[in-house]
Amino acid sequence: MPDATLTAELQSYLEDEALFRFGDEITEDTDLFKAGVLDSFGYISLMNHVHERYGVELGEDMLDSVLVSLRAIVEFVEASAVPSADGR
After folding, report:
1. How confident is the model at residue 11 (pLDDT cuts 50, 70, 90)?
2. Can you give the three-state secondary structure of 10-67, one letter per residue?
3. What is the pLDDT of residues 47-80, one digit of tens each?
4. Is 86:27 a contact under the CB 8 Å cutoff?
5. For 83, which DSSP code?
6. How far apart are the first and last CA of the chain?
7. Phi-psi category of 83—alpha, beta or left, where left has phi over 0 and alpha has psi -120 to 50?
8. What is d(CA 45, CA 51) in angstroms, rounded to the nearest whole number?
9. Is residue 78 within 8 Å of residue 2, measured between CB atoms?
10. The model's pTM
């Protein structure tokens, strides 16, 4: 089960940056590229945000992979994140 705090933070970031809101039409499982929410510039901004905030490299090669929905991005960050000094 994805971390609710991580999901909320990335959801807020995406909504603020791409000027949309998750809801009935755009959900955690929506392909954000096909929905027109993310483009390559938006993805690069997201990559930078995730790297700076969580220490996780998404990389441009991930652009064509499954990391196109909020849920997939959250799960990838959770699996890749380096634990901090307090064990989180």
Report:
1. very high
2. HHHHHHHHHCCCCCCCCCCCCCCCCCCCCCHHHHHHHHHHHHHHHCCCCCHHHHHCCC
3. 899 999 998 887 665 555 657 899 988 998 898 8
4. no
5. P
6. 16
7. beta
8. 10
9. yes
10. 0.80
To which residue do tokens 């652009």 refer?
Answer: 63
Tokens 């380096």 correspond to 82
CA distance 73 to 86: 23
CA–CA separation, 10 vs 14, rounded Å? 6
Across residues 20-33, what is the average pLDDT?
Answer: 93
What are the Cα distances from residue 32, in Å, to 9, 50, 70? 16, 16, 8
User: Residue 17 CB: number of other CB atoms within 10 A?
Assistant: 14
Task: Please give the Cα distance from 28 to 11 (Å, whole number).
Answer: 8
- Identity of the amino acid at 69: S
| DSSP conformational letter for 75 | H
